[in-house]
Amino acid sequence: MISVRGLCKRHGARVVLDGVDLDVERGETVAIVGPSGAGKSTLLRCMNYLEPFEAGSIEIAGLVLRPDMLRGAHRATLRQVRTKVGMVFQQFHLFPHLTALENVTLAPRVVQGRERALVEQAAHQILSRVGLAERHGAYPHELSGGQQQRVAIARALAAKPDVMLFDEPTSALDPALRTEVIQVIKSLASDGMTILVVTHEPTVAAALATRHWVVDAGKVSIVGDL
Length: 226
Known about the structure:
Layout lengths: L1 E10 L2 E11 L4 E5 L6 H7 L8 E6 L2 E3 L9 H10 E4 L11 H11 L5 H14 L15 H13 L5 E5 L7 H16 L3 E5 L3 H7 L2 E6 L2 E7 L1
Parallel strand pairs: 3-8, 3-9, 6-7, 7-8
Antiparallel strand pairs: 1-2, 1-4, 4-5, 9-10
C-alpha cells in the first residue's frame, strides 16, 4: 500500500529526511516513534504531500508522489491523494461554528460536490462508528477532547480513504480520553485499514501497531516488531 524510496526532505540547510526507504503492506498498522525533531511528522506529512520533498518517491494507495508536484499539472493527482489518504492531527482543527455533523460533511459536499442527503446519511453512520451518534448536533466547545478527536477521525473517514495517517493523535488528551481514541483506531485496523501513527508514547505504539519505525536524525534506524 505504501512504498517510500530515497526520500529526502530539507528545511533550508537542515536535512530532515535523508534517503528513507520503507514499505507498508495493505491492512498493516505501523507506529513511527523517535525523539522530538527527528523527522517523524515530516515523514507522515510527505505521504499526502502536505510537505513537498526534494528527492525520492512515495507510492501510496496506487498514486505516485515525486518532487515538484505543486504545479497545476499535478493538481488532480494531489486531489486524489487527499481523498485516498486521510490525516488526523494532534490538534483537532474542527471548525468551531459548525456542529460535529457539519464538520464531517463539509468536505464531501463542498470539495467533492456530493449530494447533501447522501453525505449526511453517511456522516451519521461514521459518527456512530466512532461512538458519537448522539452528539452529531454538538459544537466543538460542547465536546470533550477525546470526542473532538473522534469527530476529526470521522471527518477524515468521510472521504473513504484507503490509508489513514495519525500525527500524535493522543498527545493532547488525558489518559481516559486517550483510551477512547486508541479504541477507535484499533477498530479501523480490525476492519483492514492501512494505518500509520506518529507517537512519542511507547504505550500507544504498543497498543496500536505490530511494527514500528524509529526515526532519528532523518534516518529510519530500526524497523521491527513490537
